[in-house]
Amino acid sequence: MTTSGSVDFNLDMAEITEEAFERCGSEFRTGYDARTARRSLNLLFAEWANRGLNLWTVEQVTQTLVQYSTSSSVATYPIGTITATVGSSTDLVVGRTITGSASGTTAEVLSKPTSTTITITVPSGPFTAGEAITSNASDESGVSTTITTDPSLSDAQAAVDVLEAVVRRSGSDIGISRISRGDYLDTPDKTTQGRPSQFYVDRLVTPTITLWPSPENSTDQLIYYRVRRIEDADAGVNTADIPFRFLPCLTAGLSYYLSMKKAPQLVPTLKAIYEEEFQRAASEDSERTALRLVPSFSSLSLS
Predict the structure, then answer these.
(1) pTM for the whole thing?
(2) d(CA 184, CA 215)
(3) How many other β-carbons are positioned within 10 Å of the β-carbon of residue 130?
(4) 222 and 238 part of one domain
(5) Which of 123, 144, 229, 270 shows a CA-CA span of 20 to 30 A to 60?
(6) Host domain of residue 145
(7) Residues near 275 by Cβ (< 8 Å), separated by ≥ 6?
(8) How far apart are CA 81 and CA 111, in angstroms?
């Protein structure tokens, strides 16, 4: 007998929900059933983010650094991209501050991908759609254009954390170390410019990464791995943003979550199954690297 030759098995959200309801001894029938299952799926994805690293959510980000226009600026970037659509980006200068004329919102220009778009730092507040924005050009003359809509923060807000980072200069990558909030606070002069050697991650609703020293040019690149959120469960025809190895875990988790609402008597059983499935999947979702142990002799003394 021949095998199928197929390796593309997957389940969409509706099929996962149907399987979970069946494990609860129920049937997936109404629109409310779909809504409550979708809500539970998104809560389940949030729980997975709290359980630890999911390797498929790790992605590389490259950000060209900016030497800000004044030595008093601190190098803080969104962990992701915030793109604003403007009337014209031609006269705007990278590293300069833009200010909304009506809202008073400010942000720094990080890059100019096209003639009508700019990437910016996390704005101080919402911009007003259609308002004029002003900035200063390199010769300090005023520059004015309009901003079409308030920029979306969704890509930056999808960031969960930063794992590691390097600074690339002239094709060579040098690792930079992560410091805590307290260590960054203790830094005497946060505006010192040079080649960045440390970074601090502020895990806000819109997370940011701050470099020290502040970049001394606008050609170095910051390259880092960030952990992003798992994509939401929306339409039933969508597939889940997970590798196929996590399908048993996702189905077991949803059935456990639904049992708390639909079949309380099954909660202990379904929770145990879910925890077993998650442990099995999480153990597989790891990097396979050689372990090298080096003994330390620093505490030994010779007599």
Answers:
(1) 0.86
(2) 16
(3) 11
(4) no
(5) 123
(6) 83-151
(7) none
(8) 10
